[in-house]
């Protein structure tokens, strides 16, 4: 049985899938969490198993507290006590100006991107902290350059949710540092994932590539590399920190 266990939320595609695959290669038993796409999550698990790794696909909408609790309980039973959590699950909606948004849309975004991340962090701390019988651990929040750029005219509700995730990273890192739990965040820029289609512009990365100093979009693997550095012992004295994976944007 692998020594360490990782939960990756929203791991059926994109950055989450890349993190899950890389984590398994580095010896983690991985919970590949998904909300709806069971087939895609199963494909990630199959890819991990084909390389000799251990992974399970587990359903759970992080916007629903009860589902998050069940997810962590299932990991306890099937894989063991969690050592690393990657809060990757995130949603955005169609590009539009704030004046055209309704509150229901904003609430949906915040429920997954902020409340969901908070509840996942809570469940992880309840397992990682020594006072709960844990042995420390690492949490990596997948934020976005939108938190710093604001995404005007596109989805400032999504940008605001990622700003909240950044603040959560800072506060929680200080709160649990003495428990041996490190909390850091990556801020991806324009990355080639399916998420842009959710905003109504599948080709968005190519459109903005010219405004990126490196003149190209990034890959999920490039983000996963940084996530796994934060999780690794190489980052043992790093908490409350951010790495922008944005090509200089």
Automatic annotation (TrEMBL):
Residues 4-184 form the Ketoreductase domain. Its EC number is 1.-.-.-. It holds the Pfam family adh_short_C2. SMART domains: PKS_KR. One of its GO terms (molecular function) is oxidoreductase activity, acting on CH-OH group of donors. CDD domains: SDR_c (cd05233). It is an enzyme of class 1 (oxidoreductase). InterPro entries: KR_dom, NAD(P)-bd_dom_sf, SDR_fam. Signal peptide: none annotated. Keywords: Oxidoreductase. PANTHER family: NADPH-DEPENDENT ALDEHYDE REDUCTASE-LIKE PROTEIN, CHLOROPLASTIC-RELATED, RE15974P. This is Short chain dehydrogenase. It comes from Bordetella petrii (strain ATCC BAA-461 / DSM 12804 / CCUG 43448 / CIP 107267 / Se-1111R).
């Amino acid at each position: 049985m692998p020594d360490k266990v990782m939960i990756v939320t929203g791991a059926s595609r994109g950055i989450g899938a890349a993190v899950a695959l890389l984590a398994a290669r580095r010896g983690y038993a991985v919970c590949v969490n998904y909300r709806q796409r069971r087939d895609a999550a199963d494909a990630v698990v199959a890819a991990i198993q084909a390389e000799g790794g251990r992974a399970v696909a587990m359903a759970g909408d992080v916007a629903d507290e009860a589902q998050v609790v069940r997810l962590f309980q299932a990991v306890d039973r099937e894989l063991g006590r969690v050592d690393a959590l990657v809060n990757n699950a995130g949603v955005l909606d169609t590009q539009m100006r704030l004046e055209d948004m309704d509150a229901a849309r904003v609430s949906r975004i915040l429920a997954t991107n902020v409340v969901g991340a908070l509840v996942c962090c809570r469940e992880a701390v309840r397992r990682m902290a020594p006072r709960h019988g844990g042995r420390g651990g690492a949490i990596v929040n997948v934020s976005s350059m939108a938190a710093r750029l604001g995404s005007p005219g596109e989805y400032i509700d999504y940008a605001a949710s990622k700003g909240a995730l950044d603040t959560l990273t800072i506060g929680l890192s200080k709160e649990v540092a003495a428990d041996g739990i490190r909390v850091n965040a990556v801020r991806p820029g324009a990355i080639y994932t399916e998420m842009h289609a959710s905003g109504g512009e599948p080709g968005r990365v190519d459109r903005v590539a010219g405004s990126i100093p490196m003149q190209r979009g990034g890959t999920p693997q490039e983000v996963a590399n940084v996530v796994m550095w934060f999780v690794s012992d190489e980052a043992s004295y790093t908490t409350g920190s951010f790495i922008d994976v944005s090509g200089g944007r």
